[in-house]
Structures are given as structure tokens and as C-alpha cells.
Amino acid sequence: MSLIHFQILSAAMFSIGLYGVLARRNALLVLLSIEIMLNAVNINLVAFSSYAESAQEVGQIIAIFIITVAAAEVGLAMAIILRLFRDRSSVDLDDIDLMKW
Prior knowledge:
The chain is an all-alpha fold and about 100 residues long. The chain has helices at about 5-25, 25-50, 60-90.
């Protein structure tokens, strides 16, 4: 497979994730869509690093850092979402107005 196949896959996954972030109202689905977008970036980084001549490890190392940040983001976001669900009995993003004046 060539690099263009990985780029098309990555663009499709990123587009699906972007649509999920913009169209969904459920906080869990928005979080899942952000994870899909981060995985699309990881696919792109690893594909570019495997086809690059000079820096083969750089893309893979950055992808590992992105996976680490995504794991921390999921843990923190799930804690916030669970707390909001306990307080409001809903994870609908339109109903969350805790930070409004």
C-alpha cells in the first residue's frame, strides 16, 4: 500500500470525527469523536514516518505521546461527564450550563 491510501483513510477518519464533534449533543459521543480524530492523526504520523527516509522514528514517538495525552484526556473527561451526570441526570451538552453567569 502506498502513502496515499493511508492519507485517504486518515482524512476519512478525521472527517467522521469532525462531523461527530459538530453534530452530536451527547458528551460521550463528542469524546468518542475526538478520539477518532486523534487516531486519524496517529495513522498519518506513523504512515509519514514509515515512508520518510531521514526521520523514521520521529512520527512514531509523537504518536506515542498523542496516545498518552488521549488516555489522560479520556480519564479526565469521563470523570467530568460522570460528575455532570450525577448532578444533572443528563450528558446532553445543551443542558450543561454550569459555567454560565
